Amino acid sequence: KQEDILKTLLSDMKRSHPTLEKVLIDERDQFLAETIRTAPGETIVAVVGAGHAPGIKRYMANNTPINLAELSQIPKAGNFGKVMKWLIPVAIVVLFAAGFFMKGKGVGTDMIWLWIAANGIFAGLGALMALAHPYTIITSILAAPLTSLNPMIAAGWVSGLVEAISRKPKVKDLESIPDDILSIRGFWRNNVTRILLVVVFTNLGSSIGTMTAIPLMLKVMH
Q1: What angle is formed at CA 26 by the lines to CA 24 and CA 32, rounded to 5 degrees?
Q2: E strand or H helix at 221, and its extent?
Q3: Which of 19, 26, 108, 184 sits most deeply, having the most CB atoms within 10 A of its CB?
């Protein structure tokens, strides 16, 4: 709440994370400033966060109209990401098919087992590192080989859902989040933040499993 500290934090964000600063601070400042400026009535009282106050004052002093419709539009996603998320699973399926047709049933079957083992083991280890419930660990092992081939769903989402059902967060978990996130042990102890850890570590393990399985499958084909 101290102005000098606030200015330092905002300037650090602008320097280190310009895109983040643009979306979270600058565009919101513009939106708030224009909303306040065009609000009906003779006397307007606006309650805003301290981080937005300097920017709002700057834009209101400028008196240049701001296009709120343009600020409210969600930028269209590029085609590269859409193509890549399908390209990798398709390439892996093609690799399976190549193993069966070029090297025979035995090699193709070995490739499938390598895929299942690598994805399942590393995803399970990820869930284990998050100290997940045993049901969650088993689910991670079973789900990862399938979700790695489906860009619409991630292994961590499945394991996170199972963790939330197996260890339902209580009101005390929500109330203790501000204190628990201040320590590493607290992250693992709190049932809410542990769900996030399960999602992250399971996804990370599944990704490592995919990167491990591909070269092993290629090696089997040679």
Answers
A1: 90
A2: helix 191-221
A3: 108
Alpha helices in 41-152 (DSSP H): 53-62, 68-72, 79-103, 105-129, 134-147
Under a CB-based contact definition with an 8 Å cutoff, are residues 131 and 167 in contact? no
Cβ neighbours for 98, distance < 8 A, ≥ 6 positions apart: 221
Can you read off the two tokens belonging to residue 180? Answer: 């628990």
Residue 105 sits at φ, ψ, to 5 deg, of -60, -40
Residue 37, both tokens: 């400026």
127-182 per-position pLDDT tens digit: 999 999 999 999 999 999 999 888 888 999 999 999 999 999 898 988 888 888 88
Q: What is the pTM of this model?
A: 0.66
- Contacts from 140-148 at CB under 8 Å and sequence distance 24+? 140/202, 140/205, 140/206, 144/119, 144/120, 144/202, 144/205, 144/206, 144/209, 145/115, 145/116, 145/119, 145/120, 147/206, 148/89, 148/92, 148/115, 148/119, 148/206, 148/209, 148/210
Show Cβ contacts of residue 195 under 8 Å, excluding neighbours closer than 6 positions.
Answer: 160, 163, 164, 169
> What is the rounded radius of gyration, in angstroms, for the C-alpha atoms of the chain?
25
Between residues 9 and 35, the one the model is more confident about: 35
CA distance 142 to 50: 48
Scanning the structure block, which residue is given the tokens 């499993």? Answer: 209
8 A C-beta contact, residue 25 and residue 56:
no
